[in-house]
Structures are given as C-alpha cells and as structure tokens.
Amino acid sequence: MKSLMALSVVALVLVMGCATDQSKEIAQLRQEVSDLKVLAGPPPTSLDTLYPPEADAPVYQIKMFEMEAPFTGIAIETGKGNFELAKAYFERFRTQYLEVSKMVPEWEKEYPLEPVEQLGASLETGEQDKIMAAFGAVAGACNDCHFLNMPKVQQKYHWEDCSGIMVSDPVTKENVKYSQFMVNLNVSFVGIGLELEQGQPDNALKHFEALNSRYQTLKETCGACHQTEREYYVDDNVQALINTLGATLRTSSPDTNSVRTLSQQIGMESCMKCHWLHIPATYAKAQWNERKQGGEE
C-alpha cells in the first residue's frame, strides 16, 4: 500500500512538472508568434496621419531629424569639453524625445526614459567617459527601434505601390496590371534562349522583337513613380546590349554562346539590379495588403 501511494505521489509530481513545462512552452511560443507578427507586419496605422498623403509632409520623419540635431550636439560639445552647452543640448533633446515618444502610441514603449535620464545625470559629472557611455546607451535604444521599424516605414511611405499601375502591352494590345506585364516581358526574354535550344532561330527573333517592344514600354512605366529621367536599369547602356542581342539574332546562324552571354549581361545590368532595389518594398506591401484583406490587422 505504501509503495502504491509513493508511486502515485511520484506520478502526480511528474504530471505537474510536465504541465508547468508545457505552460512555459506555450507562453514562449505565443510570445514568439507575437514577435514575428510585429517583425513581419506593417507600421502602426496611427503613423498614417503623420505621412503623406494624409499629412502634407512626413511629419514624423521631420520630428526625428529635429530631435537628432541636439542629440548629436551633446556628443560634439562633450568632445570639446563644453559641458554647459552639452547640457543645454540635452534639455532640448529630452523635451523633443518625450514629445516624439507620444506621437505614435504603439511605439511609446520603444522610447525608454531611463537611459535618457542616466545621460542627463552623467553630464553633471563632467566626465567624458561616463557621458559618452551613457550617450551610447541612448543611441543603442534608438538603433534597436530603427533596426526593426525604419525599413518598414520607408517601404510603406516612400515607395509607391506598383499594384495600381496599369500598362498597355504593345504586343498583346491589352491593358494589363504591372505584375502581368512583367510576366509577359519575362516570357519574351526567356523565350529567346529556349527557341534557340530547339533550333528555331526565327521564333527566337520573334521573342526578341517582343522583348524590345516591351522594353520600350517598360521605360515609360518608370514615370508612374519617378519624376526624373532614369539613368540606370533602362538607360542607353542596357539598350545597347539589347541592340547587340538583336543584331546577333538576325545573323544567318546566331551564335548560341553570344546570345547567352548578352542575355546574362542584360539580366544582371537591368533585371536583377532593378529587382534588388524594388522587390523588397513591393513584396512587403503585397503581403501587408493580403493580411489586411484577410482581417489580420
């Protein structure tokens, strides 16, 4: 009987221990999911009122620049040994820091007050090492927030949304979404090499003519976002490569290696470099829009 009771106690302890471990694991998983949503999600919607088009100017960004000036001034004057002016800059910075911390309620926790107060206290000592160490702690808090949020803010408010751009495809004569036009452009480009592999140079040339025609239209679509002439990706250097590709394909027996080399150069100088720059923001916006439509925000 005593043995049975002892086994029961051991079993109960084990069950309680497992339940505790599971509870901790579930809590940890929930926190990780929450952190991932913040990492992958868009900036807070309250920020919309501080950026165009709802605001006349990027108000939040301007306030950040205004706050950065006296903060940097603290380091400059500390380095010069002018501690009184450094203190004056600190008071300006602290006032602006508190003001900006309340502009976006969801981000108020990203503005810890303790390191700021420690910076103020260190300035009273007049010891450069202590001041700069405290200065670095405040800078670290700023950097942590920037690391998480700055790319998303730039993607949402600086980059235009390509999903709303419509393009008149010169080959199909259809008005299509920008994403579909890029698919059509890619078909023309890739089709050149595939037709040559199959021993169909005439069809390869047809794909080239479609590529060149669509490329001219692609240049025009840049104006949907850019207000200045493009000097890269769709410039004269890339057009020269395309022209050389066309001349090679028009020979009686196109050299496959030359076509492959020219295609790779066009891909690297135009397609890939443009994608490296534009795709992160484009895909982020698309993901956020899908989540919004799915009711996740």
From TrEMBL:
Cleavable signal peptide: 1-21
Signal keyword on record: yes
One Gene Ontology biological process: electron transport chain
InterPro entries: Cyt_c/b562, Multihaem_cyt_sf
Keywords: Signal
Matches recorded under PROSITE patterns: PROKAR_LIPOPROTEIN
Highest taxon of source: Bacteria
GO molecular function: electron transfer activity; heme binding; iron ion binding
Name of the protein described by the UniProt record: Cytochrome c-552/4 domain-containing protein
Organism whose genome encodes this protein: Candidatus Abyssobacteria bacterium SURF_17
Species classification: Bacteria, Pseudomonadati, Candidatus Hydrogenedentota, Candidatus Abyssobacteria
